[in-house]
Amino acid sequence: MDYIRAFIVGGLICVIGQILMDKTKLTPARILVSFVTLGVILGALGIYEPLVKYGKAGATVPLPGFGYSLAKGAFKGVDEYGLIGAFTGGVTGTAAGIAAAVFFGYLMAIIFSPKMKK
Predict the structure, then answer these.
(1) Tens of pLDDT along 95-110?
(2) Are 94 and 64 in contact (CB under 8 A)?
(3) What is the mean pLDDT of residues 9-22?
(4) Does the structure show a pLDDT above 80 at 117?
(5) How far apart are CA 62 and CA 8, in angstroms?
(6) Average pLDDT over the chain, rounded to an integer
């Protein structure tokens, strides 16, 4: 059942992104930033937490989940280190995901030798 809930939640997030691309003049980059920002806001307000408990990876893997992780890390950093933790906590909380994205992006660039667009 966890797989189905993750598929539904992640799929709905993707459907929202696709609708925004099809029906508005927003660029994918603006939608990306909006999703991450929305994840931070909903995480800070405590609204995203129930969605994470219900949809698990379906809610944490997409872009709003990254924003949620940033907010959660910032709150944890503030609890541990005070005000400076607000700046370092988000980066610490998402460091593994960022490192994995950089590593696998580099690995794919080596394997598939990308070319510049003309």
Answers:
(1) 988 899 899 999 998 9
(2) no
(3) 94
(4) no
(5) 12
(6) 91
**CA gap 118, 116 in Å, rounded:** 6
Confidence of residue 115 (pLDDT cuts 50, 70, 90): confident
Residue 52 lies in a domain: yes
Q: How many CA atoms lie within 13 A of 13 on its CB side?
A: 26
| DSSP notation for 30-41 | HHHHHHHHHHHH
- Total domains in the chain come to 1
Distances (CA, A) of 9 to 15, 27, 51: 10, 23, 8
Q: Which domain range does residue 67 map to?
A: 2-112
Find where tokens 């660029």 sit. 27
First and final C-alpha spacing in the chain: 47
